[in-house]
Amino acid sequence: MTRLQEETSSCAQCPLRQGARQVAFGEGNPCAKIMIVGEGPGQEEDRLGRPFVGPAGQLLDKILAAGGFGRMEHTYIANIVKCRPPGNRIPTPSERASCLTHLYRQIEIVDPVIILLLGATALQGLVKPEGRISRDRGQWILWENRWVMPTYHPAALLRDVSLKRPVWEDIKLVVARYRELVDANHASQYC
Ligand code: SF4
What we know:
Structural class: alpha/beta
Number of helices: 10
Shape: globular
Bound molecules: iron/sulfur cluster
CATH class: Alpha Beta
CATH topology: Uracil-DNA Glycosylase, subunit E
């Protein structure tokens, strides 16, 4: 993973690199059984070169902790695009396509059993181009021999607290599948 990170840090395959301070490659346990995929770096992620470190990332950490998952212990976190889109706009299909090669290689290295997709861009960019997060969340998708769970992006929860309940329902499904496939004794705070 370190070699891939070094290679990606000098990537300029799409125009997003020009407006970004640095490449926010991804982080976590490269042997994790759960991989989390979001949309792209925001302002704080761009500044620090790490994914999910702003307010949405802090909320994600709490959600994971409630499911008994430590961000750096049980998961590996990356985004569909690794350079910040200007003004936090949604990455274009061509930018997403350029960056997917890096994400595919990350997935190959981590080899997760479960992939948690956060938000519509992650759902559409990785597994279901015609996907709708409000319709597809909470339903398992078998993709490349991995179990994929789409749910709302934590940034959406910060804007609309009514989404917290469906996200929690989705995390409970992830906990159940993790117990089934990885660790029958996995302990979580609430389920
Ligand atoms: S967003 Fe991805 S493809 Fe585009 S320059 Fe950054 S690392 Fe390369």
